[in-house]
Every structure is written in structure tokens, then in C-alpha cells.
Amino acid sequence: MAKFIQSLINGLNLGSVYALTALGYTMVYGIIRMINFAHGDFIMVGGFTLFYTIPVMRAMGLPLWFSVFAAIAVCVVVGVLTEQIAYKPVRGQGSTTALITALGMSLILENGALVVFGSAPRNVSPMFDLPTLKFGPVSTPGTTILTLVIGIVVMILLMVFIKNTKLGAAMRAVPEDKIASTLVGVNVNHIITATFAIGSGLAAVASMMYTTSYVSIKNEMGITLGLKAFVAAVLGGIGSIPGAMLGGLMLGIIEIMVKVYMLPGAYEAVTYLILIIVLLVKPSGLMGKNISEKV
Amino acid sequence: MKKEEVPVLETKNLGISFGGLKAVNDVNMQIYPGELIGLIGPNGAGKTTIFNLITGIYKPTEGSYFLCGKRMNGLSTHQVVAEGIARTFQNIRLFKKMSVLDNVRVAFNKNMKTTLAGSILRTPFFWKEEEETTKKAMELLRLFHLEGFANENAENLPYGKQRLLEIARALATDMKILLLDEPAAGMNPVETAELKDSIRMLREEFKIPILLIEHDMSLVMSICERIYVLNFGEILASGTPEEIASNKDVIEAYLGKEDELEGGETSAEG
Lengths: 295, 270
Prior knowledge:
heterodimer; A: mainly alpha; ABC transporter involved in vitamin B12 uptake, BtuC; two-stranded antiparallel sheet; B: Rossmann fold; 2 domains; 21% strand; disordered C terminus
């Protein structure tokens, strides 16, 4: 039982990293019907920002977790620039073009990081100094619980934001009817930029959660993480925000459970098996709308 | 007509060609403050195309149009809206999956001071502005007796109420002129009467000019002050409902047989 609860906590922790990343995929897809495959690499950018700013914070005597703000700022800039420079010019030229551009952007970020930071993995210093928590036989690092709580709070804030604010309403309106949106005065370009900014900001938070739990970062980390978050978004129903959260958390738990109880070596295969099954059986995902793509 | 005033909306030789075909040609219209103007014409005459030109969905290939004297050619749609032109659609285009309240809230773009950073950081100012938006949106809904449906998804409203919601949403953009594209289309007589009341209320409450495309002749004849008749993309005639009803060209092109015309006149008096 203790092992199960332990695994569940680990699963939720991994799952919330996936969930925050999946949100970036799903928000962009929801608004411009494009899979931003470079999104996983934003997390890598966030990871390196943390790696380099934590010592700065230490030198300045500031709390180390202040470097999260630096990561958010850098990721937002990278995300918005990616959109402005790479995606905006090809917007309206079909989904294949957009997809290939996104893959290209992903490679540029990865190889750019290879040039700048090299290929050796780096260890990000811990930002939080928390004791290990013990609940009876279950023991877990305090940071795991903390990042889990942060992840869940961020997701709830995002839901509230999308549901209750005017900008959130505009973000829901644009995918429903672009022309009607512009005719009530919504600047679609601003909404797309805002979406990228928020998605990238979430990626930075995800990188904070990732590095506190898994420590090691390298230039290629975005690929696997991004692909898995993509699977999570599809599982939850791409375009659906609660779906991304549910899909992310589920995928995290499934991966850890498979690793612990079933096939330790093959848990990643299970992830992609899930993708194939979802695409075959219910392509709209768990919480997606069951309608075919409008042409 | 108040000739000395600057028209709220004016088109000068406005036209557009689609691959050599002139869909709209040489259209000259003036709409003055407070006026309710009808735009009628047979199907395919180009009425909605004119709306699309004025709202920046299509770019005019000839002529220009002006809002309160300001040339509007080349502005993108959201800029046109920001300048003060609002419209509704022939086929309802609400945000169906969004609440009635959110449909209106999303249209309050003018005078919003909050920046993206502000809304992400949720400054107190941001919340105050959100609150005000909600309050103003509720006021608009109240005017159209839609406040009871505020949290309902737009798609669940009865048809007539959806039309009214679309008008309420257009009003939220804080416009100088309202373009209504066949607001009575598909409405039953009760809903049409309700619409008529709402248009009357609009004029009293907001004092804004309205340009109305409508096929319901009795509605057009009874509420419009002046009417433009469009045929094959060109203005065929303009004048008061009485003048239009007795215009020979119009009768030939649009109203058809004489007995139908009499029907139109009767309701114009009523």
C-alpha cells in the first residue's frame, strides 16, 4: 500500500509536469489549429535559464526560487518570438506547412542549445530546501509535494483565467468563430500572441517542476518531454484545457505505475501505445468535442 | 434629411469586383446621426457584400467609405470595430459554446486599459475592470430582457433571443453606427414584434443610427426613415418608404406585382 501511495505521488508529480506542458500544446492548438512541436523545447530553455540564474540569485542573496521568474520571462520571450518570426508568416498556408515549421523550430532550439550550452547534461541546483515528509510508511521529498501543489494551483488559476476574464473569453471566442471575433473588436493576432505567452510561461513553470524532481537537464530534453505532453494532450482531447490536465496527470500516473508494477523497461512504449489506441478508438480524446475537423 | 451635418457613415462610389465581376458598383449612401435606414434589394443584389465592405472583411476595389468623415479604407476588421462600426450577421454567429454573458463581455474591447501582463499578474486594477465589464454586459442583457439567461450557453437560447443577443453583443463594442443584417430572418411574428420593440428601444436609449438589411417589407416600411434599394450591385433608388413604394423602377425590379405593393403600403400606414 505504501508503495502504491508513493507511486501515486510520484505519478502525480510527473503528471503535473506533463499537464503543464500539455496545456501549452492544447491552448495553441485550440486557437490556431496547429501543433507547436517546439513547445517541449521551451521547457529546455526554461531549464537552462534556471541553471544559470540560480547561482546569480545565490550571489545576490535572494531566494533561489526567484529564478523561476527569470525562467518565465525568458520562456515568454522565446515563445512569442518563435510565434512572430516562424509561425506568423506561414499562418494560413495549411496545417502541413505549420507542422513542418514547428518541427524545424524545435530542431533550431535544440541545436542552438547544443551550440551554446554543449551536449553534456547539467544538474540544476535545488531551489527549495525542504525536509523529507513522512506519512506513516510513505516518505516523500517535501519538494515533490510543493511542486505538485504549485502545478495544481497554476492549473486552477489558468482555468479561472480562461473562464472568468475577458481575455479568456476572447481566447475561447477566436477558435469558435474567427470572423465574428474580429467583428466584435477582438484582435486575433493579439490573442494568438497572448496564447503563446501564456503557454510558454507555463512551460517555464513546468521546467521548474521538472528540475526540482529530476535535476538533470540537457539540450535534447525537450523532445521526449514534448512528445509525451503531446500524447497527454491527445489523450485528454486536444484543444480542451481540462482535458490537457486530466491527460497529463493520467499519463504521469500510468507511466509510473507501469514502471513500478509491470514493465520497468517498457513504460515509454506504453505511452505511445496509448497514443495509438486513442487515435484509433477515440481521436477526440477523453474530453474533446466529438466532431470532425471543419475544413 | 439633415444635410448640414457630417454623415455618420458615408460611402462614395464604393465598389468591389470579384475577378472582373462587379458585385457592388458605385454605391453612394449617407447615414446621418440618429437615422434608421433600410437597405433592400432582391437576393444576390449585394447587400451583405456592402456590409462586408464597410466592416473590412472585403477590401473595396473602388471608391471609399467614411465614418464621421474619417476615411476607413484598408482598415482591418477589428480596427473598423474599434473605430465604431458594429454589425450582426444574416446567419447568427454567436459563440455558441460560451455563456450569454461571455458573448457580450468579449465584445467590450474599447477603453480596456489592462495589458496582457496586467491580466496575467491579476493586478487589482485588472479585477476592477473585469468587474465593470461584467456589470456593463449585464446592463446590456437587461435591455434585451436576456439577463435571466446570462449563464446559459448561447446555443441554448431560443432563436429569436439569439438574434437579440447578437445585437446586444454588437452594442457592447461601443459603436457609432449599427449594421443589422436581416435581423428578422426566420423569426415568427411574435419574435418580429419583439425585435421591432428592441430596435425602437435601441434608438431611444442609444440614439445611434442603424443601417438595416431586411426582407420583411412590412418591417422595413414601418420603421425606416429612408430606404436604399440595391439591384445588381447598384443603387436603384433611394427615398422615404412612400417614395420607394411608388417608385416604378423599384416596383419592376423588386416589389413585382402591383397588389403586393399595396400590401406594403397598408402596413406602412399601420
